[in-house]
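Summary for the lay section of the report: proteins are chains of building blocks that fold into shapes. Here we show the chain for Arginine-hydroxylase NDUFAF5, mitochondrial and then a coded description of the shape we predicted for it.
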Amino acid sequence: MSSGLRWGVLRAVDCGLVGPAGRWSWSCSSRVPVRAASGPGRSPVNVFDRRMKKRQKNWAAALEDGHQYDYLRAEVGSRVADRIYDVSRSFPLSLDIGCGKSHIAEHLNQDVVQRMLLSDVSEESLRRRRGGHVPTHRVLADEEFLPFKENTFDLVVSSLSLHCINDLPGALRQIQQVLKPDGVFIGAMVGGHSLYDCAAPSSWLRRSGREGSPPTSPPSRPSATWATCSLRPVRHADGGMGESNCAWNRRALLHRDTVLAAAAVYQEMYGHADGSVPATFQILHMIGWKPHNSQAKPAKRGSATASFGDLSQISRPAGSKN
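The coded shape description reads as follows.
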């Protein structure tokens, strides 16, 4: 990757939740995207208004019916937790970056994670964190500036919090720094093809001379689909998730006739026979280990004692009677 990280392993898997409202299925395909967003000697891009993102997350977390909009975070958080269980070790101290309402920690137990720090830029999200079996401690911090010492954590996780980071490679470098040697990072983030079905009507409006802007912030390119009734509920759901557009070039207001026109285009392009329309999220899963001398390494070139070219000369295994 172009971030300057020296991960022992960094694997990305592009996954999607697909299904009608209330019913979900999961599909995955291996994909390793490469993006030169920033690096040594480069200035990070400044696309996102982080103060606006904090306000959006605080507003969403304070909603009385906020639990109705947690389904995507809850689903992805549970799958990140599943990946933690796939690692055959326990983690004395872990960190959840951009934890929200702690949708990962609620699925863990102390046999795997003994203690977890919950870090988020939103005070309301931390205040309304979900309960669980793992002792947790809250830390108010921005994902772009981690206030932790190097070599502190055995495990760092992140679920749906890295897609609005201005300097994503820099954030990954910070994650690597706070990990102990041989520590593991497990993350999931929204990919660049998310809500493409919402973006198409918005693009049509711009081409036709009407006002229009992306319904959400432009995420990093690294899917889940649910059915809803119209464009307005889709955008309401985004707001309830705290995922409204926070790009600096966002429009402050969309007029009612613009929303109705976009809804009509949306229905025409993607509508189902029952009147519902889909909204699609692309989810990118990542896992990586900080280098350590104990990790397995490839054998030195020329150290092999047998050749694959000799396989054709072997008629049967050694010691076989038949």
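Put simply, here is one thing we learned. The first helix runs from residue 50 to 61.
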